[in-house]
């Protein structure tokens, strides 16, 4: 086996070199804690996307979303922004008020509502503006010693690849690591991630760690990505939806230990109960249990669960009801054979909607109007 990579992001040794990908609506404090309970306390678990503008305006819902668990270290926050000024101001607030220990920047969002305005995955095409935003964040974080990392896609589409420039620029400006989701924005979540792009980015960016992201659904996928690309760490998103124990499997694999046995349905029920309890702790019972509903199909995927019970679980309203329903599952049912296959959103490719004339001049550093969305969490 190739040696597992060793990863340092600023002052933090990330060990094993595994990162929970930021996922809006998913990686809240409860889900991060659950993943950490299975994985290593020294891996990195990134929060849901927070928009810089909302931090600057101290939007109440956003400030509430910036919640970390007791003892959660490093507190890893992802910021989205399109304007160097508001990005700098947001980072100053975050580090000045000691609200996070690590800032990741999101330049990968493919959602039309965002790219249409020039935000998300559309932005790195404007390389001067991209540079200014990264620089603004790094400078604002520097006095507090908070490392900044940058996450992006391969490009807008096959004709407009931006990742090599983005990687070099981010590293140049003092980002402490770069992460590549190896798809174009046009691919959204469809098809396969092109891991050869991760290898190319690794060749192009030699002074900071390069993290690979896309289609890690099993511990073996993570080992394969490292072996094929030479990346310094892996970022795992959809693979852990309904499978937070993947972090235990990843930890074992990276440490050369035998994998923990896959959970039977009884164990999954226990984990679901724990997830529900953590969500209820952080959001209150009503909101917490409602939030758990979206995870239900992922947890139960491939297990023999009658359609009526499945439906009831998907509409569960209280912790007591959850407990009762989970008790009715067949606790001895074995983990499904295809548990490690793709899961979560896939969708289909689509032409990326961009502002009029966006592709005309990559050097234009005008801040795009209206792209500084206020809505944190996607
Ligand atoms: C539900 C969902 C929400 C996401 N939200 C974000 C986000 O807020 N910020 C971000 O940088 N990427 C976000 N992503 C992208 C993931 O971080 C990751 O790059 C992508 O899912 C590819 O990795 P995977 O194949 O391991 O899932 C999201 C993905 C999903 C599925």
Map the helices and strands.
Elements lengths: L6 E3 L2 E3 L3 E3 L8 H10 L5 E8 H5 L3 H6 L10 E5 L3 H13 L5 E6 L4 H4 L11 H15 L6 E10 L2 E2 L1 H10 L4 E8 L10 H10 L5 E4 L5 H11 L3 E4 L9 H9 L10 H19 L1 H16 L6 H8 L4 H9 L51
Helix pairs in contact: 1-10, 1-11, 4-6, 6-7, 7-8, 9-10, 11-12, 11-14
The protein binds flavin mononucleotide.
The site of flavin mononucleotide (FMN) has 24 residues, from strand 4.
In short:
With 378 residues, the protein is an alpha/beta fold. The protein has helices spanning 29-38, 52-56, 60-65, 84-96, 112-115, 127-141, 163-172, 195-204, 219-229, 246-254, 265-283, 285-300, 307-314, 319-327, and strands at residues 7-9, 12-14, 18-20, 44-51, 76-80, 102-107, 148-157, 160-161, 177-184, 210-213, 233-236. Pfam families: Dus.
- Report how far apart the termini are: 39 Å
Estimate the strand proportion: 5-15%
Helix content: 25-40%
Number of helical segments? 14
Domains, number: 2
Named CATH architecture of the largest domain:
Alpha-Beta Barrel
The computed structural class is alpha/beta
According to CATH, the fold-level topology of the largest domain is TIM Barrel
Tell me which ligands are bound: flavin mononucleotide
Strand order of the biggest β-sheet: 3-4-5-6-7-9-10-11
């Amino acid at each position: 086996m190739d040696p597992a990579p060793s990863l340092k992001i600023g002052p933090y040794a990330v060990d094993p070199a595994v990162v929970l990908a930021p996922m809006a609506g998913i990686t809240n404090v409860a889900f991060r804690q659950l993943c950490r309970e299975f994985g290593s306390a020294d891996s990195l678990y990134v929060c849901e996307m927070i928009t810089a503008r909302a931090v600057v305006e101290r939007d109440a819902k956003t400030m509430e979303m910036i919640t970390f668990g007791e003892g959660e270290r490093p507190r890893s926050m992802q910021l989205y922004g399109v304007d160097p000024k508001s990005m700098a101001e947001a980072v100053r607030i975050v580090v000045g008020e000691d609200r996070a220990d690590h800032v990741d920047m999101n330049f990968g969002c493919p959602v039309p509502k965002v790219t249409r305005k020039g935000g998300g995955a559309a932005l790195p095409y404007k390389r001067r503006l991209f540079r200014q935003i990264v620089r603004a964040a790094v400078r604002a974080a520097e006095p507090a010693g908070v490392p900044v990392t940058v996450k992006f896609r391969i490009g807008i589409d096959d004709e407009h690849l931006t990742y090599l420039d983005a990687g070099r620029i981010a590293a140049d400006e003092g980002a402490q690591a770069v992460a590549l989701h190896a798809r174009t924005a046009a691919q959204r979540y469809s098809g396969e991630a092109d891991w050869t792009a991760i290898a190319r980015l690794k060749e192009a960016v030699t002074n900071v760690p390069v993290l690979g992201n896309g289609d890690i659904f099993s511990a073996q996928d993570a080992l394969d990505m490292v072996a094929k690309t030479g990346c310094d760490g892996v970022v795992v998103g959809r693979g852990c939806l309904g499978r937070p124990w993947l972090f235990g499997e990843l930890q074992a694999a990276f440490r050369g230990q035998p994998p923990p046995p896959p959970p039977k349905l009884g164990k999954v029920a226990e984990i679901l109960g724990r997830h529900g309890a953590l969500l209820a702790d952080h959001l209150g019972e009503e909101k917490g249990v409602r939030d758990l509903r979206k995870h239900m199909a992922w947890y139960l995927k491939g297990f023999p669960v009658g359609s009526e019970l499945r439906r009831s679980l998907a509409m569960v309203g209280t912790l007591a009801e959850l407990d009762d329903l989970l008790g009715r599952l067949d606790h001895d049912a074995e983990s499904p054979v295809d548990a490690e296959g793709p899961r979560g959103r896939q969708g289909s490719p689509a032409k990326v909607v961009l502002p009029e004339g966006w592709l005309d001049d990559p050097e234009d550093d005008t801040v795009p109007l209206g792209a500084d969305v206020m809505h944190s969490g996607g």
